[in-house]
């Protein structure tokens, strides 16, 4: 009789599996440098008081053997006006970013992920009408493709005791989407604040972000924080600071065929327009805001699966084809908040009269997975803007660096595993301890995932044929064996073409898993 192939739609029941396959990862640096001519509407520059730089990528695309990206570097700068004593002005510089990284094997429509940061930033005053800048940008790109695998889950019409199954759980990215939604708001200054004569600096940031995936939509909400630094109309008016918190919400349609375990979303302000307009009394007290929020949404799920690991048939010979595949197993995922507190002495800086604001960024410099823990180390950079006691420098900015080290509990982790940490600075507060010392408090939040790379053998094909007489005769009709180190009752039954139930009954074994190395067993071949 010729060999026959089991019908995968019949006896051997199969299932399709989508696997995230890592195609490649590359790191690179790009250099952005140039000169900026101060507009005619702005006064001459004497020296730079406070520069701020923020990088944002709004387009990431997989192409053939490369990942392209584009965005902009935003530079906001406060400076002392030349020829004056204490007069301040501000500039906003936008630098376009358009580049790519070569990664062999990348194809269009693959998922591309980009991590980027400003590694170094410097400025120079060329003359009182021109500023030079130079930025070094760290870029890390990684690519994921989805591949399909078909595997056998079980064989119908074959006794369950002759089939060995195993369970496994895959951490799978099931959707990646980038979309944007607009925000349009209007702010009116409170009555106790003077009207705006000169808007020196405005900044927008996002706080209290919440993400919920429901059905075919991802709902996003949060607060848009607006900070204004300006000078009032009155002669000799001090610099004013006004902060506003604007709730926003939006939703993005997304195809979702499974229940999502995790929804991660990175929100950035793609572009914004802030315009000061007059109220009904003709005073510039209204700020009109238009912003586009770019959302990068990653939907993940932990998928529990069961596959056929092995099988045998008493009256047939099974030829099993097995394929080994790599997959990611989620060991731990948690969200934590930590407080970091540091007293900072302002060295070589004028004394503080009044603190205006503090802003900062968190930079993760190192992460290490150990047993049941992840150790995260980094720094928080803080800018402290204050009114000083110096007539020559009435407004002063002091930059501080605060290191941190945090131990995060990740039960089940060990040194062989990888982790991803998304670190955010949720809140910053500052207390004045003396005219030369402040206390900084930071609230940091970490989303930590520990991933273990695993391999599993999937049965993809099965052939069977009748056992010939010679093969049957080679098996002893009865034998007494000694259980080895790696033996199980199931493996012994398969090896000797025996019935598992009869093997247990003959040897008075109530629990097939309860056998010990060195134990004697009587094995009787199943008659065919």
Describe the structure.
- By secondary structure, this protein is mainly β.
- It has five domains: 4-18 and 146-173 and 302-330, no CATH class; 22-145, no CATH class; 176-301, no CATH class; 332-456, no CATH class; 468-524, Membrane-bound Lytic Murein Transglycosylase D, Chain A.
- Helices cover 4% and strands 72% of the residues.
- It contains three helices and 21 strands.
- The chain has helices at residues 469-474, 489-495, 500-506, and strands at 4-5, 12-37, 45-63, 66-81, 88-102, 111-127, 130-155, 163-188, 196-214, 217-232, 239-253, 262-278, 284-311, 316-345, 352-370, 373-388, 395-409, 418-434, 437-466, 478-482, 520-524.
- Strands 1, 14, 18 and 19 form a four-stranded antiparallel sheet that branches.
- A hairpin with a 5-residue loop joins strand 12 (262-278) and strand 13 (284-311).
- The longest helix is centred in the last third of the chain and has 7 residues, at 489-495.
- The two termini are 17 Å apart.
How would you briefly describe this protein structure?
The chain is built from three helices and 21 strands. It has 528 residues and is mainly beta.
Helix-strand layout with pairing:
Layout: E1 4-5, E2 12-37, E3 45-63, E4 66-81, E5 88-102, E6 111-127, E7 130-155, E8 163-188, E9 196-214, E10 217-232, E11 239-253, E12 262-278, E13 284-311, E14 316-345, E15 352-370, E16 373-388, E17 395-409, E18 418-434, E19 437-466, H1 469-474, E20 478-482, H2 489-495, H3 500-506, E21 520-524
Antiparallel strand pairs: 1-19, 2-7, 3-4, 4-5, 6-7, 8-13, 9-10, 10-11, 12-13, 14-19, 15-16, 16-17, 18-19, 20-21
């Amino acid at each position: 009789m010729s060999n026959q192939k089991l019908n995968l739609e019949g006896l051997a029941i199969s299932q399709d599996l989508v696997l995230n396959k890592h195609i490649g990862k590359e790191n690179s640096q790009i250099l952005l440098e140039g000169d900026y001519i101060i507009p005619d509407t702005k006064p001459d520059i004497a020296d730079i008081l406070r520069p701020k730089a923020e990088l944002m990528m709004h387009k990431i695309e997989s192409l053939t053997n490369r990942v392209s990206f584009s965005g902009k570097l935003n530079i906001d700068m406060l400076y002392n006006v030349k020829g004056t004593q204490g007069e301040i002005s501000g500039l906003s510089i936008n630098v376009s970013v358009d580049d790519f990284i070569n990664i062999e094997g990348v194809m269009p429509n693959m998922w591309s992920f980009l991590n980027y940061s400003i590694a170094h930033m410097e400025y120079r005053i060329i003359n009182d009408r021109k500023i030079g800048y130079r930025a070094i940008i760290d870029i890390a790109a990684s690519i994921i493709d989805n591949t399909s695998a078909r595997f056998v889950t079980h064989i119908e019409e074959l006794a369950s005791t002759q089939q060995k199954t195993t369970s496994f759980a895959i951490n799978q990215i099931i959707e990646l989407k980038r979309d944007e939604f607009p925000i349009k708001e209007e702010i009116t200054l409170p009555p106790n604040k003077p009207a705006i004569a000169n808007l020196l600096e405005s900044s927008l940031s996002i706080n209290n972000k919440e993400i919920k995936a429901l059905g075919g939509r991802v709902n996003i909400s949060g607060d848009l924080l607006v900070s204004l630094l300006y000078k009032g109309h009155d002669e000799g008016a001090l610099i004013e600071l006004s902060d506003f918190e604007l709730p926003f919400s939006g939703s993005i349609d997304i195809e979702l065929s499974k229940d999502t375990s995790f929804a991660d979303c990175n929100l950035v302000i793609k572009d914004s327009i802030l315009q000061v307009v007059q109220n009904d009394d003709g005073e510039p007290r209204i700020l009109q805001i238009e912003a586009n929020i770019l959302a990068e949404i990653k939907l993940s799920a932990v998928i529990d699966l069961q596959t056929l690991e092995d099988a045998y048939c008493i009256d047939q010979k099974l030829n099993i084809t097995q394929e080994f595949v790599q997959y990611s197993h989620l060991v731990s995922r948690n969200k934590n908040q930590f407080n970091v507190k540091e007293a900072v002495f302002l060295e070589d800086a004028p004394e503080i009269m009044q603190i205006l604001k503090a802003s900062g960024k968190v930079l993760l410099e190192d992460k290490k997975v150990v047993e049941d823990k992840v150790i995260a180390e980094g720094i928080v950079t803080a800018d402290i803007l204050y009114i000083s006691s110096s007539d020559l420098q009435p407004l002063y900015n002091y930059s501080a660096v605060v290191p941190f080290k945090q131990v995060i509990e990740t039960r089940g982790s060990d040194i062989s595993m990888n982790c991803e940490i998304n670190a955010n600075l949720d809140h910053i507060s500052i207390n004045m301890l003396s005219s030369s010392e402040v206390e900084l408090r930071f609230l940091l939040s970490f989303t930590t995932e520990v991933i273990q790379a695993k391999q599993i053998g999937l049965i993809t094909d099965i052939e069977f044929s009748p056992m010939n007489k010679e093969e049957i005769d080679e098996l002893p009709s009865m034998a007494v064996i000694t259980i080895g180190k790696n033996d199980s009752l199931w493996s012994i039954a398969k090896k000797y073409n025996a019935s598992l139930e009869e093997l247990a009954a003959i040897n008075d074994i109530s629990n097939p898993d309860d056998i010990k190395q060195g134990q004697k067993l009587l094995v009787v071949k199943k008659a065919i």
